[in-house]
Amino acid sequence: MQPAVIAPSILSADFARLGEEVDAVLAAGADWVHFDVMDNHYVPNLTIGPLVCEALRKHGVTAPIDVHLMIEPVDRIVPDFARAGASLISFHPEASRHVHRTIQLIKGEGCRAGLVLNPATPVDVLDYVLEDLDLVLVMSVNPGFGGQAFIPSALDKLRTVRERIDASGRAVRLEIDGGVKPDNIGAIAAAGADTFVAGSAIFGHSDYADVIARMRRAIVAGG
Ligand SMILES: O=C(CO)[C@@H](O)[C@H](O)COP(=O)(O)O
Ligand SMILES: [Fe+2]
């Protein structure tokens, strides 16, 4: 397993003070910035785009920016995010006509590529493309909103994807997104996740360092 990564979802940050909020979670021990992009089409919510990603880079953020695209179509916006400073770009297979082509497009733009599995998306969507991916993101809520409850079937899906990643022999990250809290992150880690997105659990807490430290301890303890 690769070292654990904690990626706060800025969807739950105070957007009026976004630069300061990102600085604060990184200073509090976060590893990546999780950047949720919603289009009011693929998902029923509207958030932020490449301009905001670029603004964070100009503000001085050097940590990896983990862009989670919940948009349809996907391909047209990929070069914009690459230019804006995205490190990793993940997308939903239902939102791309040609999943393999989108993965190659992301990598051709110099970013790492991730594929996202919704709660009802079967794991076999990874067939023929796992060897090209840098990350698999298992959604433990339906995409579109922060603050939803963790869907327990995601644990079984994590175990299945973990087996497939290990069998591939490649260093593919396994990320979980949705309803992740200090009290369930141990079980999530034990099921095979190594990359943990948390929005409301981190930004909804007054002490970011405390909640991130509690998450890290629970990851190590597992179960
Ligand atoms: O992609 C999404 C939601 O679609 C997430 O990244 C959420 O923003 C996570 O928020 P919490 O469930 O942790 O509050
Ligand atoms: Fe997300």
Automatic annotation (TrEMBL):
Keywords: Carbohydrate metabolism, Isomerase, Metal-binding. One of its GO terms (molecular function) is D-ribulose-phosphate 3-epimerase activity. Substrate binds at S9, H68, G144, F145, G146, G147, D177, G178, G179, G199, S200. PANTHER family: RIBULOSE-5-PHOSPHATE-3-EPIMERASE. It is an enzyme of class 5 (isomerase). Belongs to the ribulose-phosphate 3-epimerase family. The lineage of its organism: Bacteria, Pseudomonadati, Pseudomonadota, Gammaproteobacteria, Lysobacterales. Its cofactor is Fe(2+); Zn(2+); a divalent metal cation; Mn(2+). The active site is at D36, D177. It catalyses: D-ribulose 5-phosphate = D-xylulose 5-phosphate. InterPro entries: Aldolase_TIM, Ribul_P_3_epim, Ribul_P_3_epim-like, RibuloseP-bd_barrel. Its EC number is 5.1.3.1. A divalent metal cation binds at H34, D36, H68, D177. Pfam families: Ribul_P_3_epim. Pathway: Carbohydrate degradation. Catalyzes the reversible epimerization of D-ribulose 5-phosphate to D-xylulose 5-phosphate. NCBIfam families: PRK05581.1-4 (NF004076), rpe (TIGR01163). This is Ribulose-phosphate 3-epimerase.
